[in-house]
Amino acid sequence: MNEAVSKSLFQPDILADPFDFYEEKRAESPIFFDEASGTYVVLDYDLISEAVGRLDDFSNNFNALLSGGKSDEELANDTEVQAIQAKGFPQVNTLLTADQPVHTRFRKLVNLAFSMPKVNKLEDSMREMSNELIDNFIGKGECEFVSEYAIPMPVRTIAVQLGLDVADASTIKRWTNAFVDRLSGMMTRERQLETEREVVEYQHALKANMDERRKEAKDDILSDLVNAQVDGERPLDDAESLSIVQQLMVAGNETTTAALAEGMRLFATNPDQYKKIQDDPSLIPNAVEEVLRMSSGSSGIWRVMHRDAELGGVMLPKGAMV
Asked: CA 143, 174, 63, 72 torsion: positive or negative?
């Protein structure tokens, strides 16, 4: 196998800086098949826009990845994993992995927890947490930015938003790591079983918090979710609520940690740009947008083929990951 074929998008060195690899592949075709992962990768803006609009062909239901990358048949034959999962709640399709019209129901219910007034109320507590973290290292003259700020800031924020004890931030991060590792499909067998146990631990811990909110609501997102009511829509059940909170935990801290760390790296390697925002703080909002543009916390999203279908002259088979 030659070097070009053996390269994979998911190699650590390519993931660290994928842009040369993207250009190399785009020059050959707007869609390429990544042999190592068994994934079709779409690199053309127009084709991506087309694909996400073709709901009958390209499905959001990549739930198998959230279950450790195993097919239903593989899971049925894995008695060890089954035994652990049986102690928890089923993985159901909600926001990230649901197609229409199922997705519409979840969006209506979850939107109640994220109204603009509710979101705006979070700013003061977020500023306070940010200042506390900075105060811990500002006198030292240096800090290990990821461990001292980029990780704890978003983890604490999502803990407060959900109404969980900030002291449990390390536990929330451990659960989040388990969710992300399952999605990676790159785990050892030992780590796979460990993540299954941690997901079940998360489910039971959050279920206890959810039961408390149903008895007595608090001013937090978890209360808003479990008590959400929309005319004509069934309220969220336990498995659905757990799935949504799981997604909020990952989206609420994993992507933010990555963006903060990458933003700091960009400023460190572009000191002239850093000097500009030091001299003129009004440039900060645009600088944030540039960080997100150049190093998005999520550089791709999965789709699963509902059926055999063609995109950009490439035939994608039913069941393929895209």
From this structure: positive
pLDDT (tens digit, 9 = 90+) per residue, 116-131?
888 888 888 899 999 9
User: What is the CA 183 to chain-centroid distance, rounded?
Assistant: 9
Classify domain 1-60+303-322 at the CATH topology level: 3.30.43
Residue 1 CA neighbour count, 13 Å, CB half: 8
List, for residues 293-303, the tens digit of each pLDDT value: 888 777 788 89
Instruction: Identify the helix (H) or strand (E) that includes residue 67.
Output: none
Q: What percent of the chain has pLDDT over 70?
A: 93
Work out the average pLDDT over 83-95. Answer: 90
Q: What are phi and psi of 102, to 5 degrees?
A: -60, -40
Q: Which helix (H) or strand (E) holds 245?
A: helix 238-249
Give the CATH H-level superfamily of domain 68-252: Cytochrome P450 (1.10.630.10)
Q: Pairing between strand 39-42 and 31-34?
A: antiparallel
Q: What are phi and psi of 233, to 5 degrees?
A: -120, 140
Predicted TM-score (pTM) of this structure: 0.80
CB–CB of 166/240 below 8 Å?
Answer: no
